[in-house]
Amino acid sequence: LTWSKLCSHRKVVIVADSNTLESCFPLLAEAHPDFSECEIIEVEPGEDSKSWSIAESIIQRLLEINADKHTLIVALGGGMITDLVGFVAAIYKRGGPCVLMPTSLLAMVDAAIGGKTALNIQSIKNAVGTITEPEAVLIYPAFLHTLPLEERHSGLGEMLKHAILDDERTWKELLNDWNDETKQIGLIRHSAEFKAKIVEADLLEHHLRQQLNIGHTFGHAIESASFSMKEGIAHGKAVALGLMIEATLVVQLGKAPSLFAESIRDGILHLIPLPKAVPSFDELLPYLRNDKKNQGDTIRFSLATGFGAFELGVEIQENDLRKAYNTEIQQLFSKKL
Ligand SMILES: NC(=O)c1ccc[n+]([C@@H]2O[C@H](COP(=O)([O-])OP(=O)(O)OC[C@H]3O[C@@H](n4cnc5c(N)ncnc54)[C@H](O)[C@@H]3O)[C@@H](O)[C@H]2O)c1
Hints:
Low-confidence stretches: none
Mean pLDDT: 94
Bound molecules: nicotinamide-adenine-dinucleotide
Distance between the termini: 51 Å
Radius of gyration: 20 Å
Shape: globular
Order of helices and strands: HEHHEHEHEHEEEHHHHHHHEEH
Oligomer: single chain
Number of helices: 14
């Protein structure tokens, strides 16, 4: 699939945030001079832009420039941009063509894959959205050169998750090869293709796609509870912690040998540094209770029970969660000291 083929005979509009416009757009304009001719819509970086008001301002601009049903809308940015622009493209003139060009590691292996688009409403993340697959996802790893380290960890958290779900060989390859830049492209491709394969089997998340939630029940709770701490815990680190805590949980439940939790812990610590402090279990509890996978009062998990093995919709008692959380956090921080 070439860029000129994608753009032929239609107007192209690029939407980017100011960081990706500054760092990534020049690489594209250099590689494909046609890009310099495109209409560009710039939004502020940050999660606050994934909102109705910004979506509406993009739509207003599209109307002003007479964008029609065939206009190609291109998202050039991280997951915030791919979610926002994917959403706008899904509803503008009842849905038109969209191409995603993810620029963050997280967007390359996760957010841009699988057709989920979203906006946040007030403080509710992804309160509205669609599942609308783009025409194409174009991944240029060269964009990663300007990505801040913290953002890399965010993407790595998701790559580690995919590797656990895939198999032990993928897990070992990721740990051994990630720091070799020549091998990163292959690892990114493998991770993105892994997610694409699962999505293809279950686009609407009836069953198989739910495996992608491993690490996220604890991860989201840790990320959300950390907003009120002195130093918040970024998404990737929170997911990495979630994967380690959930591995300890499955060992405690007798669903995996203790070697599994040890491999997960050692592997993750090899690639992602721990936060300085974490919330207490009681601070997490309201977020765990509100997780999207719950039904009624029970807390439900997607859990990896080994490399390449998982269980879905597992109901877990609160005291088992407390025990796993406290055990793992104690292990991690005593290891660190
Ligand atoms: N749709 C999905 O399936 C899905 C899955 C996971 C996450 N998400 C969403 O993705 C979002 C998080 O994505 P993210 O972590 O990419 O955040 P982001 O898009 O906010 O990007 C993080 C920061 O990195 C900057 N940036 C991105 N690429 C850069 C580059 N190449 N050089 C320099 N700076 C760059 C951005 O401007 C931003 O400041 C959240 O909104 C989340 O809900 C969606």
